Amino acid sequence: MKLLEGKTALIFGLANERSIAWGITRAMHEAGAQIGLSYAGEALERRVRPLAERIGCTFVEPCDVTQDDQIADIAAKAKEAFGQIDILVHSIAYALREELTGPYYNTSREGFRVAMDVSVYSFVALARAFQPLLRPGGALLCMTYYGSVKVAPNYNVMGVAKAALEASTRYLAYDFGPQKVRVNAISAGPIRTLAAAGVSGFRDMYRHFAEIAPLGENITTEDVGQAAVFLCSDMARHITGEVLYVDSGYNIVGVPEIRRKDA
Ligand code: NAD
């Protein structure tokens, strides 16, 4: 029997083939889950529909997570299509481009609000909207990054947002515990996606990552997908409120040493 056989997963945050959400979608599909997909808005539809077709997914719905009515709408549609769901994946983040460069103290009030609203509050809002639909044994999952606990230059307000997202993961895990629904986060190493392209200096940081990480390799969306399957499967049935690093061990290194390939 496959790990997610008989489970229904709703995945938010698919933009294109490079999205972490796509790595998770494929892995969950291969693990036997029935998949529903959500994307930010009309502009992305022509990219998302063909991907959905590749895995035979027919539930493909827009949802701008800053809009409460759109969240209520997709929850109603999911109820109609699936009755109950087992897994909800939040793979969404956004900050104004000008906030992802230069000193953190230049963060504007509006930039702070937008980053927190789209990247953090949306997880809380989705959790609330889907709470009545979540089956016992279910799981919520969100995506975070190491910039939440250590300074990653230029990541700025997104680092602060990820800290809030990780704290939200713990508070939600507490709330959902009695319902036997688990809430976890994956902290992924850098991956070249649309969202990552907005962070200044990302290319250099990506390049040096493999030289510093104990496993000496960058990670892929497939790696995140496999970890997501584990965390949302019954194999992880007593794991909740955790942040699981999928980063080739990068986060355990206190004093980096550049290890050259020819050394
Ligand atoms: P991506 O650009 O493919 O995904 C980000 C998604 O957020 C997109 O699908 C976008 O449409 C969606 N989004 C933005 N605003 C939205 C809104 N208002 N409503 C609904 N959706 C909205 O990039 P990604 O790297 O796959 O990012 C997915 C998650 O992974 C994010 O939380 C990101 O912070 C996290 N993450 C990424 C990396 C990395 O290096 N790429 C590392 C660690 C964590």
Describe the overall structure.
The protein is an alpha/beta fold. The protein has a single domain, classed as NAD(P)-binding Rossmann-like Domain (Rossmann fold), CATH 3.40.50. Helix content is 41%, strand content 16%. It has a seven-stranded parallel β-sheet, with helices on both faces. The protein is globular, with a radius of gyration of 18 Å. The protein starts with 7 loop residues before the first strand and ends in a 17-residue tail after the last strand. The mean pLDDT is 96. Nicotinamide-adenine-dinucleotide binds next to α1, β5 and α6.
Protein topology:
Elements: E1 8-12, H1 20-30, E2 34-39, H2 42-54, E3 59-62, H3 68-82, E4 85-90, H4 109-130, E5 134-144, H5 156-176, E6 182-188, H6 194-197, H7 202-212, H8 221-232, E7 243-246
Parallel strand pairs: 1-2, 1-4, 2-3, 4-5, 5-6, 6-7
Helix pairs in contact: 1-8, 3-4, 4-5
The structure holds nicotinamide-adenine-dinucleotide.
Features:
7 strands; globular; alpha/beta; binds nicotinamide-adenine-dinucleotide; Rossmann fold
Order of strands across the biggest sheet? 3-2-1-4-5-6-7
The helical percent reads 40-55%
> What's the CATH C level?
Alpha Beta
Silhouette: globular
* CATH fold category name: Rossmann fold
Going by CATH, what is the homologous superfamily?
Answer: NAD(P)-binding Rossmann-like Domain
Q: What is the H-and-E element order?
A: EHEHEHEHEHEHHHE
Oligomer: single chain
Question: How many E strands?
Answer: 7
Q: What is the typical, i.e. mean, pLDDT? A: 96
User: What ligand molecules are bound, each kind once?
Assistant: nicotinamide-adenine-dinucleotide
**Helix count?**
8
Distance between the termini: 45 Å
